[in-house]
Amino acid sequence: MYFNFFKTYSPVKSILLAGVLLLSITAEASAQTIPSVQLKNLTGSTIDTGAIENDGNPVVICFWATWCSPCKRELNNYMDYYADWQEETGVKIIAVSIDDTRSTNRVAPYVMSSGWDFEILLDPAGDFKRAMGVINAPHTFLYDGEGVLVWTHNSYAEGDEEELYEELLKLVE
Amino acid sequence: MNKSIATIALGCIGVFFSGMSLAQTSTDPAPGIVTGNVSILFQSYQEDSLIGAVVPASKSGFNAFSNINYTQGNFSAGFRYESYLNSVLGFPGRFKGSGLGYRYARWVDKDKGVDVTIGNFYEQFGSGIILRSYEARNLGLDNALDGFRIILTPFKPLKVKMLYGKQRLDFDSKLINGDGIIRGIDAELSLNELIPNYANAKLKITPTYSFVSRFQDGGNIIKDTLILELPQNVGAWDYGVTMQYEMWKFGVSRTEKINDPSADNGYIYKEGEALMYFLTGNIKDLSFLLQRSTTDNMSFRSDRDLLLFDAPINNIPTITKTHTYNLAATLYPYATVINGESSFRGELYYNLKRGSKLGGKYGTKMNLVFATSYSLDTTNFGREEGRPDLVYGYQRNSWGFGDSLNVQDISFEIERKFSKKFKAKAMYMNLQFNTLATPVTTDFKGIVYADIFVLETQIKTAKRQSLRTEFQALFTEQDKGDWATVVAEYTWSPHWFASVIDQYNFGNPDEAKRVHYIFGSAGYINGSHRLSLGYGKRREGIFCVGGVCRAVPASSGLEMTFTSNF
Q1: Distances (CA, A) of B235 to B60, B253, B301, B382
Q2: A99, A106, A119: best mutation site toward chain B, by most B Cβ within 10 Å?
């Protein structure tokens, strides 16, 4: 029935079509911002992701997990450049761990030993992951100073940080 | 008929939200936002008698889903459309057809502390030991709740979640819920917020309390000469506290559950209990995690007669590390023994600093993980009067370890960046794995003793290009004998990748089974869109999640995956 969607006419289908079209029209005018979910950080404070801001500077949100090798490669590489990026663009990187109960307690010791300066948020039930539509980690989102999504990248390969850096520079030009 | 209803509902949702967003454009500055994702997995199969791969009647498998969410200000709603045409090998074959597998609407008033969800939702209370509804879509696991959830923050230190619902069990062109009804309440109190001037204190103390109850029609069961009544309402509760001082954190929780005769526990009337505690912290550059837990008869499902992946209400976290290297992760993955286990985990992380004599220019990271799990310390009841052996089964003598080893996993990892162009990582793992506790193989029953060695290297070959390799070996006298795996992956950032993996069972006692499982794949990534194509042999294997394992048959053929996020 669904596969012959456009070949046959029925009032039901036209309602569906109208709904979907209207949905896309109204959505077109809007920009994606960070959805609001309550998460804990590593010192036990509750953070509302909808209230994330960085004084008008860009924000990068990276989804990662202690069991995800490419995620750790990505964030370790970002760490090599983080001080320079902050100086040039004022960026703040927020690393959201999607480790569930099995491994969420490993996050703090891993982060401490890795010397990461990023803000770390814990998403053990995957609420923020779902709100952001993330299927696989790593998944990286770049928001401009107004909190509007400007760039996104799924997976990580060595050198992807150069593309992120170029995108960051575009925001401060 | 059902499809028509779903279609009308879908259309109406769209029209309704769109109309609302248009109507509010002039007064409400919050614009409507549509977000979502798509995931498609296609596999076509070939026969391969060497590895035991057979071709299903449909010759191919197709699993797909798409989440569509609409958000406007405090309001959000959405659905997931799913297809299993037919489901890929390894998924439950009863997942069939296309339709809505998840739909919800949610309204949040942050100022008044009210958050209401109707329809489907995922929820976790505390560690999840009495309630965790979640999804692991790649494993076919989804126990979403379907009903109502209200989260209230009546005053800032207190957050209360209340829910009522049924739980997803199956999919046949539509969502099919399980038999039982789940009711739950969870409260979290921030003592810091409660006491004036302590809101920003470094020491944070948070007590928690949760209660979950399941209702399912009862009846009687007959055991020998006994006629026993099944409890219709089964309650479980969990209370605990976490204390945090900067990066030091301690948590303890105690769980109890009333008698719940089930297929998992052999229909005994023993009560369930659990005790868990952990400590994390750091001393200079050394950080650590210590964790201890004992769980006894804590299996909890919507339907007492179901097993394995079906309708679990809770999740008992697995003690071992989630390994990522192929041989360490896929041959002997440990899964919690849900009827009871006593376990311990200790992890140490140390960083030799950048620029130090031993640490080198970029620093060197090391970590040591020790995890072990034993059976419970119990005594079985005898055939005494009243038959406690049939009614209660056993009694637990202590929270300590029993005599039978389930698993012992020790691994050491060291990682170093040598130059801008070269980094390497090495791992050694010593494993003792009881295949009677976690039945991952039918070839061997008992303890597998294995040593695993891994060397991973990464070389930057040109600007934005790199070659990553893994050399892995597993040595054991038991089960299928020795294995080796080689992985090579070449990436052209930010768009292209190609990789090949060869798993070789070179030490199989049966020479005919010394097979190479080679699988090659290549793909293209553009922003949040990812397409990959693969071809080769996939080994018969075991997927384990939340204490249960699913066997995935051997297969050979083509695979395509596409994921996208918008």
Answers
A1: 44, 17, 12, 28
A2: A106
